[in-house]
Write a structure and sequence with these properties.
Blueprint lengths: L18 H11 L9 H8 L3 H13 L3 E4 L4 E4 L1 H31 L2 E8 L2 E8 L15 E3 L4 H9 L2 H14 L4 H18 L2 E4 L6 E9 L6 E9 L5 H26 L13
Antiparallel strand pairs: 1-2, 3-4, 3-8, 4-5, 6-7, 7-8
Helix pairs in contact: 1-3, 2-3, 4-8, 5-7
Length: 278
Protein backbone atom coordinates (compact mmCIF):
# COMPACT_ATOMS: atom_id res chain seq x y z
CA UNK A 1 0.00 0.00 0.00
CA UNK A 2 1.20 3.53 -0.69
CA UNK A 3 2.67 5.67 2.04
CA UNK A 4 0.71 8.52 3.62
CA UNK A 5 1.38 11.78 1.85
CA UNK A 6 3.20 14.19 4.16
CA UNK A 7 2.57 17.08 1.81
CA UNK A 8 -0.18 17.59 -0.77
CA UNK A 9 0.85 17.42 -4.43
CA UNK A 10 2.04 20.84 -5.65
CA UNK A 11 -0.67 20.97 -8.33
CA UNK A 12 -3.59 20.42 -5.97
CA UNK A 13 -4.21 24.09 -5.22
CA UNK A 14 -3.01 25.43 -8.56
CA UNK A 15 -5.76 27.65 -10.01
CA UNK A 16 -5.03 26.33 -13.51
CA UNK A 17 -6.50 22.94 -12.61
CA UNK A 18 -9.97 21.67 -11.70
CA UNK A 19 -9.50 20.84 -8.02
CA UNK A 20 -12.39 18.38 -7.74
CA UNK A 21 -11.11 16.38 -10.71
CA UNK A 22 -7.57 16.27 -9.31
CA UNK A 23 -8.86 15.07 -5.95
CA UNK A 24 -11.02 12.41 -7.58
CA UNK A 25 -8.06 11.10 -9.55
CA UNK A 26 -5.94 11.00 -6.40
CA UNK A 27 -8.60 8.85 -4.74
CA UNK A 28 -8.73 6.48 -7.71
CA UNK A 29 -4.94 6.21 -7.67
CA UNK A 30 -5.14 4.89 -4.11
CA UNK A 31 -6.91 1.79 -5.48
CA UNK A 32 -4.28 0.92 -8.08
CA UNK A 33 -3.10 -2.11 -6.06
CA UNK A 34 -6.59 -3.62 -5.85
CA UNK A 35 -7.05 -2.96 -2.13
CA UNK A 36 -10.17 -2.36 -0.03
CA UNK A 37 -10.11 1.09 1.57
CA UNK A 38 -12.35 3.03 3.91
CA UNK A 39 -12.77 6.79 3.88
CA UNK A 40 -10.38 7.23 6.80
CA UNK A 41 -7.69 5.20 5.04
CA UNK A 42 -8.21 7.11 1.79
CA UNK A 43 -7.92 10.40 3.67
CA UNK A 44 -4.65 9.22 5.18
CA UNK A 45 -3.24 8.08 1.86
CA UNK A 46 -4.21 11.20 -0.08
CA UNK A 47 -3.96 13.88 2.58
CA UNK A 48 -7.50 15.03 1.75
CA UNK A 49 -10.05 15.98 4.45
CA UNK A 50 -12.31 13.07 5.37
CA UNK A 51 -15.44 15.09 4.51
CA UNK A 52 -14.08 15.69 1.00
CA UNK A 53 -13.19 12.03 0.64
CA UNK A 54 -16.70 11.01 1.70
CA UNK A 55 -18.35 13.21 -0.94
CA UNK A 56 -16.01 12.05 -3.69
CA UNK A 57 -16.27 8.33 -2.89
CA UNK A 58 -20.07 8.64 -3.03
CA UNK A 59 -19.83 10.31 -6.43
CA UNK A 60 -17.30 7.79 -7.77
CA UNK A 61 -19.50 4.95 -6.53
CA UNK A 62 -22.60 6.43 -8.20
CA UNK A 63 -20.79 6.46 -11.54
CA UNK A 64 -19.33 2.96 -11.23
CA UNK A 65 -15.70 3.88 -10.63
CA UNK A 66 -15.81 2.49 -7.08
CA UNK A 67 -17.89 -0.25 -5.45
CA UNK A 68 -18.97 -0.20 -1.81
CA UNK A 69 -18.37 -3.46 0.07
CA UNK A 70 -21.11 -3.78 2.72
CA UNK A 71 -19.44 -6.40 4.98
CA UNK A 72 -16.24 -4.37 5.42
CA UNK A 73 -17.79 -0.92 4.85
CA UNK A 74 -14.95 -0.16 2.51
CA UNK A 75 -14.54 0.62 -1.17
CA UNK A 76 -12.86 -1.22 -4.00
CA UNK A 77 -12.22 -0.44 -7.66
CA UNK A 78 -15.36 -0.69 -9.79
CA UNK A 79 -15.90 -1.68 -13.40
CA UNK A 80 -15.61 1.92 -14.60
CA UNK A 81 -12.15 2.29 -13.08
CA UNK A 82 -11.03 -1.13 -14.31
CA UNK A 83 -12.42 -0.34 -17.72
CA UNK A 84 -10.10 2.64 -18.11
CA UNK A 85 -7.05 0.42 -17.78
CA UNK A 86 -8.60 -2.37 -19.82
CA UNK A 87 -9.36 0.03 -22.66
CA UNK A 88 -5.75 1.21 -22.73
CA UNK A 89 -4.49 -2.38 -22.71
CA UNK A 90 -6.90 -3.30 -25.48
CA UNK A 91 -5.88 -0.30 -27.60
CA UNK A 92 -2.21 -1.19 -27.24
CA UNK A 93 -2.87 -4.84 -28.08
CA UNK A 94 -4.82 -3.92 -31.21
CA UNK A 95 -2.26 -1.33 -32.30
CA UNK A 96 0.67 -3.67 -31.75
CA UNK A 97 -1.06 -6.37 -33.77
CA UNK A 98 -2.12 -4.00 -36.55
CA UNK A 99 1.13 -2.06 -36.93
CA UNK A 100 3.11 -4.43 -39.19
CA UNK A 101 0.08 -4.97 -41.44
CA UNK A 102 -0.48 -1.21 -41.67
CA UNK A 103 3.17 -0.59 -42.46
CA UNK A 104 3.18 -3.24 -45.19
CA UNK A 105 0.06 -1.79 -46.83
CA UNK A 106 1.44 1.75 -46.62
CA UNK A 107 4.65 0.68 -48.37
CA UNK A 108 2.84 -1.37 -50.98
CA UNK A 109 0.33 1.29 -52.06
CA UNK A 110 2.25 4.44 -51.13
CA UNK A 111 -0.62 5.63 -48.93
CA UNK A 112 -1.24 6.80 -45.38
CA UNK A 113 -2.89 4.11 -43.26
CA UNK A 114 -4.54 4.87 -39.93
CA UNK A 115 -6.45 3.14 -37.15
CA UNK A 116 -9.01 5.02 -35.07
CA UNK A 117 -11.55 4.68 -32.28
CA UNK A 118 -14.68 6.69 -31.52
CA UNK A 119 -14.70 9.61 -29.11
CA UNK A 120 -18.26 10.98 -28.91
CA UNK A 121 -18.98 12.36 -32.41
CA UNK A 122 -15.38 12.10 -33.56
CA UNK A 123 -12.88 9.45 -34.50
CA UNK A 124 -9.47 9.59 -32.82
CA UNK A 125 -6.42 8.44 -34.75
CA UNK A 126 -4.58 5.97 -32.52
CA UNK A 127 -1.75 5.29 -34.93
CA UNK A 128 -0.74 6.38 -38.43
CA UNK A 129 1.78 4.90 -40.85
CA UNK A 130 3.13 6.73 -43.87
CA UNK A 131 5.24 5.61 -46.81
CA UNK A 132 8.83 6.75 -46.37
CA UNK A 133 9.41 7.31 -50.06
CA UNK A 134 6.77 10.04 -50.42
CA UNK A 135 6.40 13.46 -48.77
CA UNK A 136 3.87 14.02 -46.02
CA UNK A 137 0.63 14.82 -47.81
CA UNK A 138 -2.07 13.77 -45.32
CA UNK A 139 -1.53 16.18 -42.45
CA UNK A 140 -2.77 14.16 -39.48
CA UNK A 141 -1.06 12.61 -36.48
CA UNK A 142 -1.94 10.19 -33.71
CA UNK A 143 -4.39 12.00 -31.44
CA UNK A 144 -6.03 13.91 -34.29
CA UNK A 145 -9.84 13.86 -34.04
CA UNK A 146 -11.90 13.87 -37.24
CA UNK A 147 -15.70 13.92 -37.64
CA UNK A 148 -17.55 10.63 -37.75
CA UNK A 149 -20.04 11.71 -40.36
CA UNK A 150 -17.90 12.87 -43.29
CA UNK A 151 -14.63 10.96 -43.20
CA UNK A 152 -13.82 7.49 -44.50
CA UNK A 153 -12.53 6.31 -41.13
CA UNK A 154 -15.49 7.80 -39.27
CA UNK A 155 -18.07 6.33 -41.63
CA UNK A 156 -16.29 2.98 -41.45
CA UNK A 157 -16.73 3.05 -37.69
CA UNK A 158 -20.42 3.88 -38.02
CA UNK A 159 -21.18 1.02 -40.40
CA UNK A 160 -19.43 -1.39 -38.02
CA UNK A 161 -21.07 -0.14 -34.83
CA UNK A 162 -23.89 -1.96 -33.07
CA UNK A 163 -27.44 -0.85 -33.84
CA UNK A 164 -27.79 0.68 -30.37
CA UNK A 165 -24.55 2.65 -30.60
CA UNK A 166 -25.30 3.79 -34.14
CA UNK A 167 -28.80 4.96 -33.17
CA UNK A 168 -27.38 6.97 -30.27
CA UNK A 169 -24.76 8.60 -32.50
CA UNK A 170 -27.27 9.43 -35.24
CA UNK A 171 -29.63 10.99 -32.71
CA UNK A 172 -26.87 13.23 -31.39
CA UNK A 173 -25.68 14.11 -34.92
CA UNK A 174 -29.21 15.14 -35.85
CA UNK A 175 -29.44 17.29 -32.75
CA UNK A 176 -26.07 18.96 -33.40
CA UNK A 177 -26.52 19.39 -37.16
CA UNK A 178 -30.23 19.99 -37.56
CA UNK A 179 -29.77 22.52 -40.38
CA UNK A 180 -27.98 20.09 -42.71
CA UNK A 181 -29.11 16.79 -41.26
CA UNK A 182 -30.64 15.56 -44.54
CA UNK A 183 -27.26 15.87 -46.29
CA UNK A 184 -25.43 14.13 -43.45
CA UNK A 185 -27.99 11.33 -43.36
CA UNK A 186 -27.59 10.83 -47.12
CA UNK A 187 -23.80 10.51 -46.74
CA UNK A 188 -24.21 7.93 -43.97
CA UNK A 189 -26.80 5.96 -45.95
CA UNK A 190 -24.48 5.95 -48.97
CA UNK A 191 -21.68 4.65 -46.77
CA UNK A 192 -23.90 1.77 -45.62
CA UNK A 193 -24.74 0.97 -49.24
CA UNK A 194 -21.05 1.00 -50.20
CA UNK A 195 -20.19 -1.25 -47.28
CA UNK A 196 -22.90 -3.76 -48.09
CA UNK A 197 -21.84 -3.83 -51.75
CA UNK A 198 -18.05 -3.76 -51.47
CA UNK A 199 -17.04 -4.27 -47.84
CA UNK A 200 -15.59 -0.74 -47.51
CA UNK A 201 -16.68 2.90 -47.60
CA UNK A 202 -15.42 5.61 -49.93
CA UNK A 203 -14.80 9.29 -49.19
CA UNK A 204 -14.06 11.69 -52.04
CA UNK A 205 -12.71 15.05 -50.89
CA UNK A 206 -15.34 15.19 -48.13
CA UNK A 207 -13.11 16.11 -45.20
CA UNK A 208 -10.27 17.68 -47.17
CA UNK A 209 -10.50 18.75 -50.79
CA UNK A 210 -7.01 17.39 -51.34
CA UNK A 211 -7.58 13.88 -49.96
CA UNK A 212 -9.52 10.78 -51.02
CA UNK A 213 -9.82 7.72 -48.81
CA UNK A 214 -11.43 4.37 -48.14
CA UNK A 215 -12.40 2.96 -44.76
CA UNK A 216 -13.04 -0.47 -43.23
CA UNK A 217 -14.32 -1.34 -39.73
CA UNK A 218 -12.63 -3.89 -37.49
CA UNK A 219 -15.05 -5.78 -35.25
CA UNK A 220 -13.07 -7.24 -32.38
CA UNK A 221 -13.46 -10.93 -31.52
CA UNK A 222 -16.13 -11.65 -28.92
CA UNK A 223 -17.95 -8.38 -29.48
CA UNK A 224 -15.33 -6.43 -27.51
CA UNK A 225 -15.64 -3.31 -29.61
CA UNK A 226 -15.09 -1.65 -32.97
CA UNK A 227 -12.13 0.10 -34.53
CA UNK A 228 -11.81 1.59 -37.98
CA UNK A 229 -9.03 1.78 -40.56
CA UNK A 230 -8.49 3.99 -43.55
CA UNK A 231 -6.20 4.36 -46.56
CA UNK A 232 -5.78 7.99 -47.58
CA UNK A 233 -3.94 9.58 -50.46
CA UNK A 234 -3.85 12.87 -52.39
CA UNK A 235 -6.94 13.03 -54.56
CA UNK A 236 -4.91 13.30 -57.78
CA UNK A 237 -3.20 9.98 -56.96
CA UNK A 238 -6.38 8.25 -55.80
CA UNK A 239 -9.26 8.66 -58.26
CA UNK A 240 -12.49 6.84 -57.50
CA UNK A 241 -11.60 3.97 -59.84
CA UNK A 242 -8.35 3.27 -58.00
CA UNK A 243 -10.05 3.56 -54.61
CA UNK A 244 -12.65 0.97 -55.58
CA UNK A 245 -10.44 -1.42 -57.52
CA UNK A 246 -7.23 -1.27 -55.50
CA UNK A 247 -7.25 0.61 -52.19
CA UNK A 248 -10.56 -0.72 -50.88
CA UNK A 249 -10.00 -4.44 -51.59
CA UNK A 250 -6.45 -4.30 -50.20
CA UNK A 251 -7.62 -2.58 -47.01
CA UNK A 252 -10.38 -5.17 -46.57
CA UNK A 253 -7.78 -7.92 -46.94
CA UNK A 254 -5.47 -6.23 -44.44
CA UNK A 255 -8.18 -5.76 -41.82
CA UNK A 256 -9.28 -9.37 -42.27
CA UNK A 257 -5.72 -10.52 -41.56
CA UNK A 258 -5.50 -8.27 -38.50
CA UNK A 259 -8.73 -9.70 -37.11
CA UNK A 260 -7.52 -13.26 -37.70
CA UNK A 261 -4.31 -12.46 -35.83
CA UNK A 262 -6.27 -10.95 -32.93
CA UNK A 263 -8.48 -14.04 -32.76
CA UNK A 264 -5.41 -16.27 -32.48
CA UNK A 265 -3.92 -14.14 -29.71
CA UNK A 266 -7.11 -12.97 -27.97
CA UNK A 267 -6.77 -12.95 -24.14
CA UNK A 268 -9.77 -13.45 -21.86
CA UNK A 269 -12.09 -10.48 -21.30
CA UNK A 270 -10.75 -8.26 -18.54
CA UNK A 271 -14.04 -6.54 -17.75
CA UNK A 272 -17.67 -6.97 -18.78
CA UNK A 273 -18.43 -6.12 -22.45
CA UNK A 274 -20.43 -3.06 -21.39
CA UNK A 275 -17.24 -1.41 -20.15
CA UNK A 276 -15.46 -1.88 -23.48
CA UNK A 277 -16.68 1.12 -25.39
CA UNK A 278 -14.27 2.91 -27.70
Amino acid sequence: MSEVQDNPPPHRDDSRYVTALVRGLEILEAFKDGVLLGNQEIAGLTGLPRSTVSRLTQTLTAFGYLLYDEPTRKYRAGAGFLGLGASIQRNLRVQNCARPFMQALSRELGVTVAIGSRDRLGIVFLEITRPQQTPRVVNTDAGTVLPLHNTAIGLAYLVGATLAERASVLEELQRRHAANWSEIRAVIERAHADYRKRGFVVSLRSWSRAVNAVGVPLLLPGGQGVYAFNCASPSQDAPRKRLIEEFGPRLVETVTRIRAELERAAPPMLVPPSVHHP
